[in-house]
Specification:
The longest helix has 74 residues. It is built from five helices and no strands. It is mainly α and 148 residues long. The protein is 81% helix and 0% strand. It starts with a helix and ends with a helix.
Length: 148
């Protein structure tokens, strides 16, 4: 009788383990999907910010370029056109950031760093562990004396 009960309990235990494994896997997949969606939203906001900034900076650049050109022609001072050069570099960078391939080049460089320069990515004091996080949490907790 005890043997049959033990066998039944083992089967239930294995089913419970499989269920827990499946459940934890689903939870992990959901967390990964949520983190990826948050990353995508942040990237979209960053690109949208670049595009919005480009509108304002493009307007400023156009007005400044026209004004400096008119001033240089009227006063016959070509040196007045000098500020257009650095402003054009900024405009070009913003255009590349908002509509160009900057993000693709940055991603490629990041992948290259992750492959060939992995040592540059190490965190100070190494990767946080459960114990280090728990130790810091207990140190800051006002009820730490209850948990020991």
């Amino acid at each position: 009788m005890g043997f049959l009960l033990s066998k039944s309990m083992d089967a239930n235990f294995k089913k419970q383990q499989e269920f827990m494994l499946l459940n934890s896997r689903l939870q992990m997949e959901r967390q990964l999907m949520m983190q990826n969606q948050m990353r995508e939203r942040q990237m979209a906001m960053q690109i949208a910010w670049s595009r919005e900034f480009l509108k304002y900076f493009g307007t400023f650049f156009t007005i400044a370029s026209v004004g400096l050109t008119v001033g240089a022609v009227k006063r016959k001072k070509p040196a007045m056109l000098a500020p257009i050069v650095p402003l054009s570099f900024i405009l070009t960078y913003q255009m590349d950031s908002a509509y160009g391939t900057l993000i693709h080049r940055m991603r490629g460089e990041a992948e290259s760093i992750m492959v060939s320069e992995l040592d540059r990515l190490d965190l100070p004091h190494g990767t946080p562990t459960f114990d280090s996080i728990e130790k810091a949490r207990r140190a800051k907790s006002s009820i730490a004396f209850l948990e020991k």
